[in-house]
Amino acid sequence: MSFGLYLSFTLLLFLAFAMWIRGLVVRRLRPDRILSDLNTEIRTLIAEINQAGDRNISLMEDRITRLSELIVRSDRQIDDARMMLEYLDSRGAGAKPADAEERGAPGNGAGPAAQAPAAPEPGPPEPSPPAPDKPEPDSPDRDTRDTVLTLHRQGLSQELIAARTGVAIGEVELIISLRGQRTWR
Fold it and tell me: What pTM value is reported for the model?
């Protein structure tokens, strides 16, 4: 009889284990449990996407800021070059001397000795260029700043403000970005 008792006890344990496994499977496959797992997974994915998006946005903002700084710097350099060209044109430095053809300008068949540039004659140092009528590019005059800020408050785009005022787009961006941060001289 002990074998029968042992067999029935084993069978009873096996049935209890099977019922416990079935309960686990049923609980796992309930619709509310599946939805809960899906919601958790979706929240995790959304959080990861938001983190990646924020990281990408901050990288883009950093690159746009650096690009804006480069544009402002290049606008200043262009304005400086334009002022220097105007100064040189006013002095006549860009004009070709009348006797250039006689001295052996390229294309007239003169020998290499005739084509060599003459050494500059020593003399007093050239004076620095006079201050132009326009303000320095780094310091727009108060009227220009006021006009730019007024047009900006009216809702005009920076490109349109630059076109209307004749100020470089980088300078317009700079004036707008500094409007409350600096007291103007």
Answer: 0.32
